[in-house]
Amino acid sequence: MVRDMNFYKTPVWQDWCPGCGNYGIIAAVYKAFAELELDPSKTVVVSGIGCSGKISHFIRVNGVHTLHGRAIPFAMGIKIANPELEVVVHGGDGDLLGIGAGHFVALGRRNIDMVVIMHDNKVYGLTKGQASPTLPRGIKTKSLAKPNIQDSLNPIALALASGYTFVARAYAFESEHLKEIIKKAIKHKGAAFIDVLQPCVTFNDIHTVEYYKNRIYKLEDGGWDPLPREESEEAVMEKLLKAFEKSMEWNDRIPIGVFYINPYVPTFEERIVEKNPSYKTNYPARQVIDRNGKPIVDINVFKKLFQDYIVNVKNKGF
Amino acid sequence: MPRSEVNIIIGGQQGAGLETSMAVLSYTLARSGYGFIADREYFSNIKGRHSYTYLRISSKSIPRSLTYPVDLLAAIDAETIFTHFDDLKNNGVLIYDKASNTKKLDAIPSIEEPLRERLINKLNSLGIEPKISQLVEYLRNHRGIKVVELDFAGLLNTISRKYKLNPQQASRYVSSIVIGAVSELLGLDAEALEYGFTKYFKERRDIVVQNLEVANLTRNIIASYEINDLKLEDPLLKHSELLVVSGNDAVAIGKIIGGLRYQSYYPITPAGDESFTLEKYEKLDLDGESVSLIVIQTEDEIAAITSAIGASLTGVRSATSTSGPGFSLMVEGLSWAGMNEVPIVITYYQRGGPSTGLPTRGSQSDLLYSIFAGHGEFPRVVISSGDHLEALYDAIEAFNIAEKYQLPVIHLLDKFLANTLTSIPLPDLDNITIERGLVTSNGETYKRFNLTSTISPRAYLGSKAIMWYTGDEHDEWGHICEDPVNRVEMYSKRMKKLELIDKEIPDNKKAVYYGSKNPEVLLVGWGSVKGVALDAIEVLENQGVKAAYLHLRILWPFPKTYVESILNSIDSTVIVVEHSYMVQLADLITMNTGFRKLKRISKFTGRPIYLFELLEAINEIKMGKTEKMVLTYGA
Questions:
Q1: CATH of span A5-271
Q2: A274 and chain B: CB distance < 8 Å anywhere?
Q3: What's the pTM value of the predicted model, to 2 decimals?
């Protein structure tokens, strides 16, 4: 049975501005979840703070609406403790690359099997339109008093440099294309990042629907293959360098699609299994820690476990 | 006359093997049946700065506090002699390296300027040239110190020749010179010493043999001095097995017993060693069944607490461990855990603040911070431990409280306890329970924040239920809700947990009263004040002064009814003792009980409160000379 996308809607009213790119993103998420038939009780959407953060309340799977910038580490704890769960992170560009940049980089280093969907509108919408880390220098969006004097960073290049093994860009109103990328990202084994370009109809009068409509093109239309041709260091390096180069393309033409996939890097979960094979079946959320209210560690287990700390006294007094 | 108690300082450069000496001597003493505590004092430095261990040994009990002066100073370097010569009792024993003789005070760059100035003044006033040979002569002639001059280089040469060691390898055997000297002076037996080395170096038998040889060479030299003042009497303790642990180890062991399965941390002194100990148990072998304990070093303390919260949402007992600067970063996450009723344990080892403060020294100055940190109001529990055994049990209890009441629990400890090595009896596991609180597996109509009871049953992420969490005020489903009526209901439901906890946790877990019923002096304290306070009331009682100590264990919700009833039922001089400037507990008591007649004893040098100075301060206050005493002893 393929689930209807409405199955994944909660009755909570979606309080984004009319015309917001988030509507395009959530529609793609519903469709992707429906087509993958994700089990709502085994799926967790973890979101940060800002307009994008509210998304977890609108999706009928487990939702954890966290702190500004911290969605990734919350998600990490959930995923590591229970690797059976499908974990999808949503955050804004300020959330993930401003206040939460340290966590964004760390997830790449770990390659935990989860998806990060970045709602990239280049402004802090909910606090009335301040410049975000993806707004280029010299640009003056509607509520800025003066043009922005901080440079923008390149989310695709940063994700590649951090070690994400699936790096993509999409556009909020190319819903079908975005849906396919979300599906691929969920199916990818490892840390997947999707930079979703999104107009902010209220505060960003530069990066509008018009702006994007005239510039975006699909990587796959030019025959771009995100996969290394083989599993060798050289092939991976070659693909990575090409992806870096491609990530520099912006202005008149903006590529969307999957830039890079590296299926050869072990996930964090696999690295744990390598250290400790029991994690595969006996991960933390599976474990029973008591027997009828008594600790599993009884005195015999205790003496074995902690023998390094136990001294047998040879009492001179006896 | 054999001794029932001996106090020793062993000092040298950080990195010179003091930790090895401390550990091997600890195992040797425990093996022989003696009680001991070993406090470690060190700078924030890897190699070169002055570091020392204070070892207190007893044949009768496990010591609880430290005091000055000491009986023996074992000095690996000249700085140790300059720094500690005044800590040594008249007629005590000094062991030192012959090579130190030519060392002058101004040639030791690691001595901090204020100490150098104090030493120059002190030595000037005694008419001593600031040179070790002169100082040692003075100690011998004017203080009756028995001086043992050892040729460290000669001893190391002997061993290097025999085993063909290069100088760097040989230098690692300095610790065994100290171990040999101390064990001979105390009269420890050879079997126990070999056991100590073997316990420390484990399978590396060749290392054990070589170290033992250095120790025994030293023992023979020491024996020729015929110093019998420090020989210990036969031990009277009755344990057949002892656990030799630091406070960090005790907590780690408690957490494992308590069912910890996810610990996240960012490296920080003095919390780090707890996570290192836990990392040894990532592959947890529980009677044939192998399970995984996840220990993750995160990118910062924000990720440490938030990932632990995430893990907790899946039903896993989760914790993080930190000190003041790290806790500061965790506070926003703490507030989220409070809002979302997440069971989480934060093990908080206090060190000297503010800011970087004294990063490797002890403090209790984060009491009010741990109780009040966080924006908004939310329930939390703050528990503290007074000694290693309490710390082990509290590490388990912290999880029980966290899960039963679905809130963050801060387990407040400090550097003194964290880094002090001691021997404790094996825990009584029969009386430990694991209480996981209300958990439901009802998936259909589950509401995470059901308002029908103060404690809404938990469902774990990954169970049949679907649930939502948010840092925003929320409705029963966990969706954002700013409605004023819902706000009052949800807010009150959370806060009422504090009343429930206060009602349900028995008085003896909240606070313990030790000593005479109607005391002349009542000491009040918490955490690592316990040991020195108990020793102080014992001394006072022996002097005919009725004394008692009220030891607070649960600091929040403050056990106001119990504390009030004690304070109102006695007519004593009440003195609050704390390692801080403010003596924050006194203010906390006044805030909660209205009781204001509190005197204060404070210490904020980063060094522990010593018994002798505490007794002096109690006496000053008892005589009405002052309301507050500030203690400062110790290098």
A1: 3.40.50.970
A2: no
A3: 0.97
